[in-house]
Amino acid sequence: MANSSRNHNPSRYLNRELSLLEFQRRVLEEAEDQRNPLLERVKFLAIFGSNM
Fold this sequence. Notes:
mainly alpha; 3 helices; 52 residues
């Protein structure tokens, strides 16, 4: 039974909303990165827009 209570510790789970915000931040960073070709940057913006 002790093992079961350890598995339910909330600190062991990811916060879904924070994970999504972090992903969106990384997508926007790629869209802003001028080292990426323009079409790739537009694709990253489309990904961001479709996730919102």
